[in-house]
Amino acid sequence: MTNRQRLWRIFGPVIVACLLVGLVLVIPWRGHHSAKTIQRAAVSISPTVFKNKSIKSQAIGEKHPYYVPFFGSSELNRMDRFHPAVMAARYHHYRPFLFGAKGTQSLPQLFNMNMMAPQMENGKAVFIISPQWFVKQGVTPAAFKYYNGAYANLSWLKQANPHSPYDRYTAKRLIQLLGDNGTVGSDAKKIAAGKPLSAWDRSLINFKVTLLRNQDNLFSGLNVNENYDTRIKPKEHLLPQNYNYADLQAIAEKQARKETTNNRFGVLNKFYNSRIKGTKGLHNSQRHFNYLQSPEYADLQVVLNQLAKTNTNVVFMITPINAKWEKYTGLNMDMYYKTADKIKYQLKSQGFNNIVDYSHRGGETGFMQDTIHIGWVGWVDFDHRVAPFLDNPQPVPHYQMNSQFLSKKWCHLDPTQQNLNNFTTTELNR
């Protein structure tokens, strides 16, 4: 046997395998998913679904069944029998497609939305905003990287406009969170500086996006968990057959009392046992928290601009906090309410007028499932407020975007009435 034959016997299979894998990734595979896969993906809260495209864009683009994107964070994983996905399956013609887990704040949601922008055109959406997002540093690099892959980043860069203040801001945030190395970092650096990408830059992006798209079309349906079969479907038949808001509230209050018997905070028993009981250092631990100065306000602004670009009709929910818990931890609730007011000012001044503000309702019996997440009565009320918006025709939105909400002045503003009036006069009306 010659040396060439020996080398081929050793390395030949590897070379052939690599060529086959490359061929598979280059071929333009059709990314069509079954109704069952989409049904499971809609409630999977999977980072794979979040950061890719094929499943969610197919779902949001279809009309039967009618999937509505629900953007939020960790509250969407609180799947009791009154959760929006269960209530919709029992009573409504739409189905929530859940985009939310711990760390999915405004900026990850922007890249998520961009991946399905054509499908969101002139549609509806729900966006849940938590004041706890608005910390000094905003979204952490670790959370952003976890939910935002190369496919989403490159797809955004492919359409980024260096003349847009929103895209320049987003590019700067990409560099802050990911660094300025590699294709994403170097291209973001150009956009941030107001410079267009070169023909070579775009060719490289297109090549990488093609490979990632084919990979997504081939494999994304394999990484969907069993939330629908284990956490949604079994609970649907625990609800009354016919919708009655008062009856559902009463059932939810009764269930909440039954499941919060071992603690003084009114939180789920198992949550208390695993997260609070025996833990030291929690008393007055939040007395210095401040949500009034944060880059998250500007991150939210680029999300609002994206929603305006697709003319998406959105209903927003501002989350509450458990009143007994905030007293124990010393959280300044005046600060919390001012945060909610600042968020509402940013929304309303630009035409986002559909707002469910729960910031003052954290003390109601059964409204909160744990320290910061609604459940039971909260979910029933949320469904009562949101379902009519989603089930019925709504007036066409008229948004008036203002890039001054990207400014550090706004991000750092203490939202007193006088300061808000001055900001309106000097920044918004100039």
Explain how this protein is built.
With 430 residues, this protein is an alpha/beta fold. It contains 21 helices and five strands. The chain has a five-stranded parallel beta sheet with strand order 2-1-3-4-5, with helices on both faces. Strand 1, helix 5 and strand 2 form a beta-alpha-beta unit. Helix 9 runs parallel beside helix 11. The protein is globular. The N and C termini lie far apart (84 Å).
Jot down its keywords.
5 strands, 21 helices, single chain, 53% helix, alpha/beta, 430 residues, five-stranded parallel sheet
The overall pLDDT average reads: 93
Rg over CA atoms: 24 Å
- Percentage of residues assigned to helices: 40-55%
Query: Strand pairing plus helix content: what structural class?
Result: alpha/beta
Rough outline: globular
**Helix and strand sequence:** HHHHEHEHHEHHHHHHHHHEHHEHHH
Looking across the biggest beta sheet, what order are the strands in? Answer: 2-1-3-4-5
Write the layout of secondary structure elements.
Blueprint lengths: L2 H24 L8 H8 L4 H5 L2 H8 L4 E6 L12 H8 L2 E6 L6 H10 L1 H4 L3 E6 L11 H7 L2 H10 L5 H14 L3 H11 L6 H21 L7 H10 L8 H14 L10 H8 L19 H14 L3 E6 L4 H7 L3 H16 L6 E3 L19 H15 L16 H4 L5 H12 L2
Parallel strand pairs: 1-2, 1-3, 3-4, 4-5
Helix pairs in contact: 2-4, 5-13, 6-9, 6-16, 9-11, 9-12, 10-11, 10-16, 14-19
